[in-house]
Amino acid sequence: MKIQIALISAFVILTGCASSQPLKVITKGPLICEADEVCPELAMRWNEETRNGFKITTEINNPEQFDIKQLVFLVDGQPYAYSTISPTAYTTTGHLKTSTNSIHVPVSFLNSFRDGKEINLKLVTDKGEINRPILKANGQKSSAYVSFLKGYTGQMPQ
Description:
5-stranded antiparallel sheet; 9 strands; alpha+beta
């Protein structure tokens, strides 16, 4: 009987620890872009396999196809470079092609991201680099950044 109570207690404690993790799915959103610019979107998802970070997926919707090779985040001037984890995937809807690729990032990066004052993303593609702000120094936040904070912290940014 004591073993059963110990096992049940351990299960309850482990279940409680698992539920304190960030939300598993965070909605995607675009970066800060001008009307005539290629405007990537970011989506973040908890890494279910290892539970030690997030999978960040970027999408580019454009008449041209882009082979996405690397994502480099500049958080307050500090670069965090991540190579993609698989070949770029492509889908076509009408005249638009969607180029999609993903990276895995550790929780330590996400803490820096959350605490950053200015964040930019450089996408390295076969057609050159695409540089777009995620969070500007003046406080302007992209939809991707707001979605990240909402999912990661459970709070809306102020």
